[in-house]
Amino acid sequence: MIGLIFVVLMLFGAPIAIALGITGLAGMYDIGGTHFTSLAPSKIFNGLNIFPFLAMPFFILAGEIMNHTGITHRLVALSQSLVGHFRGGLAHSNMVASVFFSGITGSATADAAAFGRTLVPAMVKQGYTKEYACAVTAAGSIIGPTIPPSGLMVVYGSLMGVSIGGLFATGILPGILVCLVCMAIITAMGKRKNLPKSSQKASLREVLGHFKSSLLALLMPLIILGGIVFGVVTPTEAASIAVAYALIIGTFVYRNLSIKALYGMIVRTSQISAVIYLIIGSASILGWWLSFNQIPQMIADTFLALSDDPNVILALIIVLLLAVGMIMDINVMLVILAPILVPLTAEIGMDPLHAGIVFILALNISLMTPPIGACLFVLSSVTGAKLEGISKELMPFLIGQLILLFAIAFFPDIVLFIPRMLGY
Amino acid sequence: MTLPKNIITTTKNRLNKVNQLCVGILTTLLILDVWLGVLDRYILKWQLVWVEEMARYIMIWAIMMAVPCCTAGREHMGLEFVTSRLPDLSQRLIKIVIGGITCAFFSYIAYLGYAFAEKGANQLSTVFSMPMAYAYAAVPVTFALSGFQALLVLLEDLYALKLSFSNSSVVMQGEL
Predict the structure, then answer these.
(1) Whole-angstrom distance, CA of residue A39 vs CA of residue A16
(2) CA A194 to CA B94: how far, in whole Å?
C-alpha cells in the first residue's frame, strides 16, 4: 500500500522529493500515527547535517564560474586539434572534450546541456544527424561524473562512509575507459555511417597553442585531485580552493566576471543543490521507514538466497541498479538503494571503493537509458531532437558501456590499482 | 494580464527575489567560512575549532532557503512521461492536484518542524554551545516559505485553468 502511494504520485508527475516525503510520512503514520510522523523534520535535518556534503555546491559553483569564463570553447578547440582530423572528428572531439571538461564539472546533465548548446549544433552543421550528435553527447556526458570531481561520489562517500578521496582516485581510469570505448565505437561505425572528416591534422604548434590557452582550466582538476588524492586537503577544502581558483582566473586572467554574474551563479548553484538535497532529505524519511521495517535486510536475504556465488549476486545488483535507474532519479537511488545494496557488496567480499565505482558507473549509465534518462531529456529539450531517435543512435554506445561496466565489476584490478598505488 | 493573476505572480516574484538575496548572502558567508578554515589550517594556525560546525549549519540554512526559490520557479523534478501523454485538461487538473499535495506536504513539515525547533532550545551545539533551535529552525522556516510559494504556484495554475474555461465558453458562445 505504501509503495503504491509512491508509484501513483510518481506517475502523476509529483516532484520526486514530494513523492518520497509523502510516502515516508504515510509509512511513519502507518507504524505509529502522528507520534512517529513528528520524527520527520529531524530525519530531514540529520539527512543533510553531513560536512562532506558541502563539497558538492562548491564544485558546482567552480564549474559555473569556469564555464562563464568561456573555457568550454577553449577545451573543445584543444580536443579538436588533437583528434579532429580522424573520421568522425567532431564526435571524437566531443568525447575528448568530455574528459577535459570532467575536471571542471561533476554533473552529467550539466555536461549534456553545455555540449548540447555548443557541440551538437557544430556537429549538425558539419553533416552529422542531430540524433547522432545528441547520442554521442549523451554517451560522453557520463564521463564527467565518473572522472573526479564528481557530485555523485561526494554524496555516495558521505552517505556510505567511504573515502571520497579514494572514490576520486578510483574513478579516473573508468572515466577514461568510457571515453576510449565510445571512441572505438565511433571509429568502428565511422565508415558505415559515413561520418564526416572535419579538419586537417593540426600542427604541433597549433596543438601547443590550444594547450596553452586551456592550461588554466586543465590545471584546476590537477590542483583539486592532487590535493584530495594525496590527502593534503579534504574534499570540501579542495572544492573551496577550486572556487577561489576559478574566481581568480575569472577576475584577473579572463576578466569577464562581474559581481552581478557571480551573484546569479551563487544563487543558481544553491538552487541546483537544493533540488538534490531536498530529495536526499525527503528520502531520509522513507529510508527510516524502510529500515524500521527491516526491508533492506529482507532484500539482502532474498539476494543471498538466490545464489551463493558472489559474481551472480554482483550481476543481480547491477541489473537491479540499471532497471531501477531506467525510471528513477539517481539521487533517490543513492539514498534509498545504496544502504540496501552496499552492505550486500560487503557481504560478498567486495572492496568498498570497487563497490562504489560499480554503483556510480551503473547510476551514470542509467542517466542515459530510455525512457527516463535525464541526459536524454536535457539533450532533447536543448536541441529539439526526438527522444526516440537519440535512443536508437545511442544503443551501440550503451552496449559498449554496459560491457565495460560488467568488466570493471568482475575484474576489480582494472580500477583498483590507482587507489592502491596511492595508499587507499 | 488581469489583476488577480498579476497580484499572485508579483507577490511570488518579489518574495522570491528577497529569498534569493538571503540565499546569496548565506552562500557567500559559507564560502568565506570554509576559506577561513582552509587559511587557518594551512597558514594562520589559529586553530579555529568553530569553522566546521558553523559551515555545516550555514550550509543547511543556505541550501534549504533555496528550496522555496525552486518551488517558485517550478524546479523540483518530476516525471512527465505519463502525464504529458494525457489531454490538456487532464494535465492541468493533475497539475493542480499535485500542486495541492505539494503545498500540504511543505505546510505539514513546517508545522512538525516548529515543535522540532522548540525542542532544540534545550540542546546546545557541541563546539560553540549555540542553542540548536537556531539550526533546527531552518526546517520550519524554509518549509513554511516553500508551502507559501507552492500555494502561489497553485493559485497561478487555478487562475490559468479558470481563464481557459472562460475563453473556451466565449469561443463556444461565438460558435453558437
Answers:
(1) 20
(2) 46
φ, ψ for residue A87, nearest 5 deg: -65, 135
Q: What is the ipTM of this complex?
A: 0.90
**Which of the pair, A381 or A42, is modelled with greater confidence?**
A42
Which of chain A's residues have a Cβ under 8 Å away from the Cβ of B102? 14-15, 18
* Direct distance between the N- and C-terminal alpha carbons of chain B, in angstroms, rounded to an integer: 27
d(CA B54, CA B50): 6
CA–chain centroid gap for A228, Å, is: 19
CB contact under 8 A, B116 and A42: yes
Q: What mean pLDDT do residues A2-20 have?
A: 90
- Give the Å distances, CA to CA, from A157 to A139, A145, B87: 25, 14, 43
B-chain residue closest to A54, CA distance: B59
CA distance B6 to chain A (A): 25
pLDDT (0 to 100) of residue B24: 97
Closest CA relative to residue A323, chosen from A282, A279, A372: A372
Task: Report phi then psi at A15, rounded to 5.
Answer: -55, 140
- Region of residue A199 (phi > 0: left; psi between -120 and 50: alpha; otherwise: beta): beta
- Report the residue of chain A nearest B82, measured CA to CA: A11
pLDDT tens profile A141-165: 889 889 988 888 988 998 898 999 9
Q: Which residue of B has its CA nearest to A279?
A: B76
Per-residue pLDDT tens digits for A168-224: 999 999 999 999 999 999 999 988 888 887 667 888 888 899 888 888 888 888 877
C-beta atoms of A270 and B27 within 8 A: yes
- The cell numbers describing A116, all together, are 548540447
- Judged against a pLDDT cut of 70, whether residue A2 lies above it is answered with yes
Question: Which is nearest to A55 in space by CA: A222, A216, A220, A242?
Answer: A242
Q: Which of A45, A233, A372 sits opposite B79 (nearest CB)?
A: A372
- The one-letter code for the residue type at A133 is A
CB < 8 Å & 24+ apart, contacts of A267-270: A267/B20, A267/B23, A267/B24, A267/B27, A267/B66, A267/B69, A268/A64, A269/A57, A269/A60, A269/A61, A269/A64, A269/B27, A270/A57, A270/B23, A270/B24, A270/B26, A270/B27, A270/B62, A270/B63, A270/B65, A270/B66, A270/B69
Check B66 against A273: CB less than 8 A apart.
yes
E strand or H helix at B127: none
pLDDT of residue A303: 84
> What gap in Å lies between CA B133 and CA A289, rounded to an integer?
25
